[in-house]
Amino acid sequence: MAWVAQAGASTKVHEIISDNSFPLARALSILFGVMNPIVPDLPKPLRQRAQDSILQLRAAVAEYGNVCYANSLGSESMVLTDLIWESVPEIEIFSIDTGRLYPETYDLIERLQARYGRTLRIYYPDGEGVERWVDENGINGFRDGLEQRRSCCVVRKVEPFRRAVSGRGAWVTGIRRGQSASRALAAPVEWDGEYGLHKVSPLLDWSETEIWDYIRKRRLPYNTLHDSGFPSIGCAPCTRAVQPGEDERSGRWWWERGDSRECGLHPRARVAAALGGSPSH
Ligand code: SF4
Predict the structure, then answer these.
(1) What whole-number distance in Å separates Cα of residue 133 and Cα of residue 130?
(2) Is the CB of 235 under 6 A from ligand 1?
(3) Pocket flag, ligand 1, residue 137 (CB < 6 Å)
(4) CB 87 within 8 A of CB 37
(5) What are the phi and psi torsion angles at 277 (to 5°)?
(6) Residue whose CA is closest, atom 6 of ligand 1?
(7) Ligand 1: which atom is nearest the Cα of residue 236?
(8) What is the pTM of this model?
(9) Is the CB of residue 261 below 6 angstroms from any atom belonging to ligand 1?
(10) Along the 281 residues of the chain, how does pLDDT read in single tens digits?
(11) Nearest protein Cα to ligand 1, atom 2
């Protein structure tokens, strides 16, 4: 609950928010959205943040044409999903079901789809690849070493991700500079040589407080695990709650060194690896 408390909330946000509790406000938002999508009910600084991000997303579509958003279903993803589905719907949103997600994450997918009346495209890992990996490494073999963990991420995340972005001009990610030392070095638009397309990060300058302010003001759905100490949520066996004040990413792959804790989808980690850190996969 630390990050919710930091954001100024006095109670669990999901307890006071119903995803469809303000249909009139939502209808008015869409009506006025012709001129000023989604943002009339936000305080000015947050409205400016949202408008800047929307402009970046629209610029990406204008520049690269076929743009997709890789939705990780974390708190930043709730903001980006709202910005995209309300204001830049030509961007396709997809998620990857690794097969090891928390039940709360599947519940969130349903609530998201109900709120927006849209379908989140889900990509799955290649079944034979998963079977082979488990056969060779064991069902939880990713805990046996960095190489095993990285290869599991390759099979369950990187392979379906590669298929999802294939043939596109750019992919959108919800990373923020405040999340980790490696992400602090990221740029709003980068060439992702690993996958052969541009990577656009419109939330880089958002703070954690702004993310949660936006979620509350817009009454967005979010993963209820955030109320139990999870700032970052990935696969269940590789994610845990953190203590107040700990780094956001410290709950992911906590048994590894800090500079190796990336899932393999972000090129900055690979650059850091080339400069002497541990590669992400
Ligand atoms: Fe495998 Fe863990 Fe990576 Fe998920 S986060 S793909 S379970 S190693």
Answers:
(1) 5
(2) yes
(3) no
(4) yes
(5) -80, 180
(6) 153
(7) 7
(8) 0.78
(9) no
(10) 333 333 333 333 333 333 333 344 344 444 444 345 556 678 999 999 999 999 999 999 999 999 999 999 999 999 999 999 999 999 999 999 999 999 999 999 999 999 999 999 999 999 999 999 999 999 999 999 999 999 999 999 999 999 999 999 999 999 999 887 778 888 999 999 999 999 999 999 999 999 999 999 999 999 999 999 998 889 999 999 988 877 767 788 887 765 555 555 554 444 333 222 222 32
(11) 238
